[in-house]
Amino acid sequence: MITLDMVYDAQKTLKGVAKETPIIHATKIDNNLYLKSENLQMTGSFKLRGAYYKVSTLTEEEKRKGVIAASAGNHAQGVALACTRMGVKSYICMPAYAPLAKVEATKSYGGEPILVQGSFDDAAAEAKRLIEEKGYTFVAPFEDEKVIAGQGTIGLEVLEQLPDVDTVVVPIGGGGLISGVAYAIKQLKPQCKVIGVQASATPCMAESRKAGHVVKVQDAPTIADGIHVLQPGNITFDLCQKYVDEIVTVTEDEIAVAILTLMEKQKTVAEGAGATAVAAVLSGKVDTKDQKVCCIVSGGNIDVTMLNRVITRGLITTGRLTEFTTKLPDMPGALVELSTVIASVGANIVNVQHERESIRSKVNECVIYIVVETRDIAHKEEVISTLKKAGYVLL
Questions:
Q1: What does the longest C-alpha to C-alpha distance in the chain come to?
Q2: 47 an active-site residue?
Q3: Do 235 and 179 meet the contact criterion of CB atoms below 8 Å apart?
């Protein structure tokens, strides 16, 4: 089982390999909020810690066989870099949905990606099959004491950098990160709360906690691909039951808003999984009143094409992009009148789509779809209210 000595040994092993990432006081978001910036870690996420420590403990025979792992992307990069540093060949089974940036990064660190159709669990099943067929040595993403101990070094750093911290908020997928962090913190500062956060799309640890035993949840899409896990580990579940105070879930929109907020206010890029802890704070599911709260920003490896969609979703959710559809008489000046009404309340039109032949309109009408920039939810409501008062029917 994991021990504090193992965590300290991992910390010693990782010196010169993994960065001691900074803790940033995020005053532009919340005066009581601090960010442990693992998105600035080597490979762009915390996963290097557990992967490197695990590979460092393998026997020469295990290394000679080659290493295989299953990962949505971040563990893949950690294992690939760790193995390359130690002269070990690595193969990584990755879900086919894994962001292209993570697949390419895994290659750049010396790993050989094997794309598998389905979820992370399908990738893990393929890795196990290849172990039987090829004899590779498996490096688990979370269900391993050495991996957990490596992730636990983050807990040590949080207490060293922010000794008066009251609450630490940690993303959860399979549970390796929070198991290590919670174990280390509770050994050294038991009064510090540890709160886990999962995407509500696949809340495997939260549901397991409710059931009192490990359960598998149904698959569902999520922008938090780094924690897209359907079933937690037995080891991680037991550690969460013992050391984690609470688990909350956040929606896709809440995650998108957190990514946008971190970019705008803190000038930092977080991937979906990495932003979940901040999403829990922003949505009021973690209270920051009269206490120091540290959120683990676990990774920053977001695909740029996904980032564009996430930003748009965040703007819509916070009321800064407003879209609506209405009908206009098909005559000169009708669109000018509509634009004048929108401009009168300080909104800016960014997109207009005009349909003269629509099944939704009469022969003398046209359908207009408009996207406008607004300041916030209140401004959005003002625009809608003004349009209705002017006689426009919103579809």
A1: 80
A2: yes
A3: yes
